[in-house]
Amino acid sequence: MAYQLLDSFSKNWIFKREDPKVEAADLAQIRLLDEARASNIWRDYISDSQIHPDHFTDNDWIKGQSAVQVKWENVWESEGACLPEDILEHVAAWGDDTLVFFCCNNELVFELPWAVFKRSWKAFLFLDNGPILVAKKKKQAVQFHSSGMASLLLRA
Question: Hey, which of 32, 60, 71, 136 has its CA 20 to 30 A from 153?
């Protein structure tokens, strides 16, 4: 099996809050990868030498590029549901059914359709210690920082 039960995630409360609310139909499409699959996704999409965003060096594609920085926190704290416009524009090539990975570290990766992430992004950003959002077969990526900023990236 390539997935774990979402209830096995120690911070699963982020998906069960009333604000921000993650609808049951969306929750059913959020998959927590098992550690072996998460490790493979991390290695293939993020880094084959570092296991956590805190450890990235200039040799990692994420740090080795000058990325546009945009604010996400103001929008996150607002009543609005949409991701910041700059982020949406950066990943405009992603269709709603594009499979995305929200990568926290080499053992913690979520898989879900882009449309579901767009609706539930506020819940995911309770995990704001450098996670990277990547999509299968797409070059665009976004790294979210606890400073309230996001880096708009292009994968190598």
Answer: 32
Q: Tell me how many degrees the CA angle 38-83-141 measures, rounded to the nearest 5.
A: 40
CA 32 to CA 107: how far, in whole Å? Answer: 10
- Taking the complete model, does pTM exceed 0.85, yes or no? yes
As a whole number, the mean pLDDT across the chain is: 93
Question: Is pLDDT at 1 greater than 70 in this prediction?
Answer: no
Considering only CA atoms, give the Rg of the chain. Answer: 14
CA-based nearest residue to 29, from 98, 129, 108: 98
